[in-house]
Amino acid sequence: MSQIHIYTGDGKGKTTAAIGLTFRAVGAGLSVAFLQFMKNMRYSEISVLEKLGVKVKQYGDGCIFDRPISSAEKALAEQGWQNAQKMISSGEYGLVVLDEFNVALDLQLLDIKKVVGDLQELKLAAEVVFTGINAPTELLENATLITEMQKKRHYYDQGVAARVGIER
Q1: Three-state DSSP class for 139?
Q2: Residues in the chain with pLDDT < 70?
Q3: Are 96 and 55 in contact, with CB atoms under 8 Å apart?
Q4: To the nearest whole number, what is the mean pLDDT of the chain?
Q5: Is residue 168 part of a domain?
Q6: Domain count along the chain
Q7: Residue 7, strand partner residues
Q8: CATH assignment at residue 132
Q9: Rounded CA gap, 54 and 47, in Å?
């Protein structure tokens, strides 16, 4: 029986945990789709995931935290969610990761009521992982596993920028 995982919280490690689960799933012979929302650059993990046969797709248009959200960005997120639903219910994948999906919901690129309604109607043929800070309550209520990464200390707070191979 497929489960819904949510990795959320203000601590580091949500995407990293999803990548770890992806490696485990691939090692067990499962097909995996890793869909990144809010991202459009080639993060370090992508080449390794692709070499392992993981289908990687991005549905983002760069950093939107410092500017208004465009209709094109909302359309990208909607396209990603439509594709995710097909992958989740197709039976082709054993695991579908929706990386930074919680952030897309938090920033209202997608309508939470529609997403939850779609999710409740989907035939879950794959394990599903949602990552990102600020997972909305409505999504949390539909999860069967919730892990909250809690920040105790982070070097970002001292001005250390994201580093290749560690954060990106």
Answers
A1: helix
A2: 63-67
A3: no
A4: 93
A5: no
A6: 1
A7: 131, 147
A8: 3.40.50.300
A9: 10
